[in-house]
Structure formats: C-alpha cells, structure tokens
Inverse folding.
C-alpha cells in the first residue's frame, strides 16, 4: 500500500471560520473519511444495542489518541489507499452481516478511530489555542458522526428488508472502495 | 434548424463533475440498463433471499470487473458477453426460471464482471475517483432497485404477465446488441 500514489483528496480548511468549526468540518470534507465513518456506523448499528456505546467509546478514544499523536507531527496523514482499504474491509463486514463477535467491531472501531484521528489532525504550523480548538472540533465531529449513524441504524426496524438494505449499502461501500483502489493503482 | 448548437460541453473535473459523470455512465447504454433492471426483476421473481442477494453481489463483482478495466487488463468478448447478459437474464425473467440460488448468483456475478470491465475501460481520466465511483455505484444500485420495484408486480396475476413480458423485451434488446441491430 505504501507504493501507491496518493489520490488528490486533499481539502482546504474553510477560510474565515472559527478554529473549532474548521476542525469539526475538517474530517467531514474528505470523501474517504465519509466512507469509513458511514461503514463503521452501520457496522456498530448491526451489533447488540446494549454494547453500542462501548464500541463508540472505543472509537472516540482511538480518535483522540490518533489526533494527539499526529498534532505535533510534521509528517503526512494516513495514505488514502489505506483509508480506502479500511473502508472496504468495514463495508465487507457490514455486507456479510455475520454474527461477528464483539471484538471484531471493537477492532474496527479502534482502527478507524486511530486512522481518522491521525488524518484529521490540524496542519503543521497551527499552534496554541487554535491547535487545541481545531483538534477538539475534529474529535467532536468524528465521534458525533459515528454515534449518529450507529444510533440511527441500530434503531432501524427489524424487518428483513430493512436489514438487507443496510447490507446493500455495505456492498456499495465495498464497490466504491474497489473502484477507488483501482484508480489509485492506475495513477 | 437555424438555432446554433448549444454549448453542451462539460468538464468532468471536480467532485460534482465526477459524481455526475459516474452516475450517468451506467445510464448511457441500453444494454447495461436492460441487464441491470433484469437483475432486479429476476431477483424479485425468485423472491427472498435472491431478491436481495443478487443486488448485493452484482455491485461488488461489477466493481472488481471495473477495477480490471481501469487497470487496463483485457478481457475477451466483453461486448458479446454484455449482449448475452441481456439475452440470458431476460430469458430467466421471461421464463420465470427458478434455478438454485448459487446458480443464479454465479450467473449474475459472471455477467457483472463484463459490465464492470466495459465501464472501467471507458472511464474518463479527469474524473474525481471517489465521487465518480459513488455516482457509478449508486446509479447501478438504483437500476437494480427499479427492477426489484417492477418485479414486485408479480404479486398480481397481471403483474406476473407484465414482468415476464418485460423479460421478453430485455431478451430482444440483448439479441439486438448481439447481432448488431442496436
């Protein structure tokens, strides 16, 4: 995966916006992030409702760890093909909808949290209060995005066609991921 | 006739352009549309779980075919197999064929590879990869859902006839492409 060229998924921070909101928007303006966030939310929503918050908590902690680790680094974020591969794997878990043990969901949540947190860290050169506000905004945004998708997908009716609809969305995430990887390999 | 040609030209750069380009791509060929609607129609005819399994399998395998096409790996007789997909899937709907689930799944997956490959080799180079892929997959999925929705008419007697007639039309379209009339 390291040999793959980066896709042009870079995004600019919105000018003139308060750092907290700019940080909150930062993870949501990257399409590869949305792929992972949507897939993870659906995967967590497929699990037992009682354990939903634990999985979201793991994601949130991992995202905080990723953000904290990447905040003071000058290096690049997570390579887009890695993010796409992660989204593809999570989409496959959603699509298969097998009775996964909880550790599978927790592992996916931890991996996604770390990757998205790392990739959403404020750009190098941001310092002081601005850095804290941007990181806080990104962390809140990531956590709330997963929490919302997971919460509402867990509350979907138990009708078979609804649950299969979730699996269809998972298969779409896989298909999008495969095509994106092919584009990345071609470039 | 005296009106000058309108400027329909468009670039496919950028997120929105990529999405629109990807969304339009599966809708630009009658052979593709017919086969994808046939997948939904056949799934609805077979009932659960095929009704949902086939539209889950098709996009994933089609994306694999698309990836092969994007990477420039050639496949033999792509256009023939696409035309054959219309013939075979249309016949399956017209005859209300009920093979074992794995046979239906394998048949759909086989043809999905060729549809994906054709789209993959024709991809615009300027397209935004992710939004193109999102549009492409969504359009394909919506065609399947249209087929399923039409296939739900099989609950009624007149609906079964209509759906089977639709399968006949799709078979005709497939033959049309196979023999170069379309």
């Amino acid at each position: 995966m390291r040999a793959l060229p980066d896709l042009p998924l870079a995004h600019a921070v919105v000018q003139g916006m308060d750092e907290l909101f700019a940080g909150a928007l930062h993870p949501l303006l990257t399409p590869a992030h949305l792929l992972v966030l949507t897939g993870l939310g659906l995967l967590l929503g497929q699990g037992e409702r009682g354990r939903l918050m634990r999985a979201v908590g793991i994601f949130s902690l991992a995202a905080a760890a990723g953000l904290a680790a990447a905040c003071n680094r000058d290096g690049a974020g997570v390579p887009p093909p890695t993010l796409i591969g992660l989204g593809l794997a999570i989409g496959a878990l959603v699509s298969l909808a097998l009775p996964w043990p909880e550790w599978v969901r927790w592992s996916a949540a931890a991996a996604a949290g770390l990757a998205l947190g790392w990739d959403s860290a404020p750009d190098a050169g941001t310092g002081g209060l601005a850095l804290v506000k941007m990181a806080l905004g990104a962390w809140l945004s990531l956590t709330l995005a997963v929490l919302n998708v997971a919460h509402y997908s867990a509350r979907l009716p138990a009708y078979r066609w609804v649950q299969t609809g979730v699996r269809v969305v998972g298969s779409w995430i896989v298909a999008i991921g495969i095509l994106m990887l092919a584009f990345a390999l071609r470039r | 006739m005296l009106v000058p040609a309108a400027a329909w030209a468009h670039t496919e750069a950028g997120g929105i352009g990529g999405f629109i380009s990807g969304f339009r791509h599966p809708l630009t060929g009658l052979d593709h549309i017919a086969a994808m609607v046939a997948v939904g129609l056949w799934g609805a005819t077979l009932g659960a779980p095929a009704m949902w399994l086939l539209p889950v399998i098709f996009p994933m395998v089609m994306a694999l075919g698309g990836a092969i096409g994007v990477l420039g790996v050639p496949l033999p007789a792509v256009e023939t197999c696409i035309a054959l997909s219309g013939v075979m899937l249309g016949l399956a709907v017209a005859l209300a064929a009920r093979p074992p689930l794995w046979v239906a799944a394998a048949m759909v997956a086989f043809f999905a590879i060729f549809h994906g490959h054709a789209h993959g080799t024709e991809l615009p180079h300027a397209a935004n990869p992710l939004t193109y892929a999102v549009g492409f997959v969504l359009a394909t999925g919506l065609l399947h859902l249209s087929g399923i929705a039409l296939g739900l008419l099989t609950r009624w007697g007149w609906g079964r006839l209509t759906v089977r007639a639709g399968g006949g039309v799709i078979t005709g379209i497939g033959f049309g492409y196979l023999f170069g009339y379309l």
